[in-house]
Amino acid sequence: MAEPEIPEEFLGDYARILAEVADTGRRLTRDELEGRRVLGREAAEAGHQLRALVSLHLTATRSAWPLTASGASATDFVLAAVEQAVDAFAEGFERAQRLTVRREEAARREFIDDLLYGRSDLGRLAERATRFGLRLSRAHAVAVAAGPEAYTETDAVPRSVEAALLARFGGRKILLTTKDGRLVCIAPGSQPDVLRYFAKQAHAATDGGQVAVGRPHRGPGGVVHSYDEALEAIDLARRMGLDEPVLYSADLLVYPVLTRDRQAMADLVRSELGPLQEARGGAEPLLRTLSVYFDAGCVAAETARRLALSVRALTYRLERIHQLTGSDPSDPMHRYALQTAVIGARLLDWPAKEL
User: How far, in Å, are 298, 327, 353 from residue 287 at the CA level?
Assistant: First the structure.
């Protein structure tokens, strides 16, 4: 598509200035320089390209080159004036562009905050989303990456992840940003490969940071829902000691189910594990023993290895648990209630927090 023709009004009194400079050898006045800056700003606001505007000035220079009797010295004067005029024009143009960029950044940040917090009118939010390449009438999923430090959009880590995504999925409708120090990627729910690739790149760029992916949900509120699921997965990983590099909320649905009735879970933890607090050193060492025992598939030798204990020492701990709680971890009849209580203790952060 051809560039739109640039009106000559953006040249202003450029030809007159060149003629006067050639005759007198003077430099541009302060008012003339400010006039060039104003024209540059107006040209930027009108949407013209700087390259085309510079070309317009050079063409006008050639067409209006002053013919004087002063000889070659006039050439130096005119070229100096051209340099001043075009530099001032470009300065005004760049000021306008920087202001536009700041406005765009502010609008983008406001949109992202509204999108991830669900604070704006959903209909209006959907209209604004099209400006940023999202069609909120469709299902979207959100991935969140948490690294060892907090990130902003201008940091090297987010920019390297964004560059990798754009190189591979340049034509896709993807929104990459940061929120509360974490990397956030929003992509259509029909394109799970985008979030998988984001997870791979973010894990590497954050030196092993953990990534959580929410389930796809439809509509403006669906983005908030998926984002909340990803955040909950990261929090759950911290409490449960899950060290997988990528967590999918769809694989962790059992945990919200277990804590849906928080009071019932707290009662179970107190009933099954409360007596462990009577042990020397409190409940924590024996609770960790149970946790590792269940994670190891109830295999004594593997549990002892993970805890850096002898099998005999592990056996003593399991017997002590049996004595205190009345439940035998090696008995399938008791194992389910004990394991559920151990999971509940992790979810409720017991015994660090009172139930």
Answer: 14, 13, 14
CA 155 to chain centre: 11
User: What distances in angstroms separate CA 117 from CA 14, 103, 167, 198, 300, one per listed residue?
Assistant: 52, 21, 29, 22, 47
Residue 242, classified by CB atoms within 10 Å of its CB into exposed (0-12), middle (13-18) or buried (19+), is middle
Q: Around Cβ 59, how many Cβ atoms within 10 Å?
A: 11
Distance CA 311, CA 202 (A): 40
- What residues does 211 pair with on adjacent strands? 145, 246
Note down pLDDT in tens along the chain; length 355 residues. Answer: 445 677 888 888 888 888 888 778 788 888 888 888 888 888 888 877 777 788 788 778 877 776 555 554 567 677 777 877 788 887 777 777 666 656 666 667 777 777 787 666 666 676 677 766 677 778 899 999 999 999 988 888 988 998 899 888 876 788 888 888 999 998 888 889 999 999 999 999 999 899 999 999 987 788 888 999 999 999 888 888 888 899 999 888 888 777 778 888 889 999 999 999 998 888 999 999 999 999 889 999 999 999 999 999 999 999 999 999 999 998 888 888 899 999 889 888 899 888 7
Report whether 16 contacts 39 (CB < 8 A): no
Query: CB atoms < 10 A from the CB of 181, how many?
Result: 12
pTM above 0.70, yes or no: no
Tell me how far apart the alpha carbons of residues 42 and 10 are, in angstroms, rounded to a whole number: 8
* Phi, psi at 317, each rounded to 5°: -60, -45
Token pair 């024009």 in the structure block, residue: 89
